Amino acid sequence: MDKIYDVIILGAGPAGLAAGLYAGRSRLSTLIIEKGQDGGQIAITDEIENYPGQRVEGESGASLVERMAQQAEKFGCERVSATITEVELLGEVKVIKTTKEEYRGKNVIIATGAHSRPIGCKGEADYVGKGVSYCATCDANFFEDFEVYVVGGGDSAVEEALYLSKFARKVTIIHRRNELRAAKSIQEKAFANPKVEVLWDSVVEEIFGEDILQGMAVKNVKTGEITKIEADEEDGMFGLFGFIGTIPNSELFKGVIDMDERGYIIGDEDMHTNVDGVYVAGDVRIKSLRQVVTAAADGAIAAIQIERKITGYV
């Protein structure tokens, strides 16, 4: 298409939507491209308690993101639902090629987020959707009155374990260390929940079953002992949910945008990358804290930097 946007935002998670809101309010012509559902990982989080100013109870990731999207659109952001296939970022005008059309912009904000890291056990790929999941909100109802296991020890893992306890008969957190990394307030809820237990110093080595997940081998990292866990005969299966970190969605930008060895994009405190006119925001960038509030802040900063660049205000 012939139109050249002031800014094209890649991704509609909290970082991308906040960038859209601030860019729109600055009267910049703005396009947000998102291939899936708005919100990224936060959209599949059942309960959020740490975003300033939100409802203290009853706020889900989906409801928060819906309001963010409405704000961005209110201030004039255009939206496209498409998969980005190729980017050309080195010219004065950036080109974003998608499965629908080709879009051009003077500036780009990379807010593509990250995706769940696999558990890493033998047989994992064979049972995705057949007992293995990375989204409690998506799949918890399939395990009502079943036993489920959650791999991880951070905020996401413990929060998802608590959510799963609303459905499952029993939830066991499998953690490779002897203490959880989740915030203390979240840990307190977990330890107070009679349905939630923790299997310490352990990792899942292998999973198996006939068509569906029916068993796994769990290794104690201190003793090396292998324990075989099998589904209850009456249930016939159990659930295994992985929440052990994320992998940045940055493959499209390799070789052009500077990254660390894990693929997280390098940006300064004002979200500039090494390429003029290209900014980074949210979970895809190197940062010490990946939360909704920091993603939104990143997006706001990136958009304001573009507004100042266009208007000449420093």
TrEMBL record:
- InterPro entries, alphabetized: FAD/NAD-bd_sf (IPR036188), FAD/NAD-binding_dom (IPR023753), Ferredoxin-NADP_redctase_2 (IPR050097), Pyr_nucl-diS_OxRdtase_2_AS (IPR008255), Thioredox_Rdtase (IPR005982)
Alphabetically sorted, this entry's keywords are: Disulfide bond, FAD, Flavoprotein, NADP, Oxidoreductase, Redox-active center
Q: What is the reaction catalyzed?
A: [thioredoxin]-dithiol + NADP(+) = [thioredoxin]-disulfide + NADPH + H(+)
Q: Specify the FAD/NAD(P)-binding domain's residue ranges.
A: 5-299
Give the required cofactors.
FAD
One GO term in the molecular function aspect is: thioredoxin-disulfide reductase (NADPH) activity
Q: How is the cofactor bound?
A: Binds 1 FAD per subunit.
Q: Look up the domain of life of the source.
A: Bacteria
Give the family from UniProt: Belongs to the class-II pyridine nucleotide-disulfide oxidoreductase family.
Q: What is this protein called?
A: Thioredoxin reductase
The organism of origin for this protein: Aequitasia blattaphilus
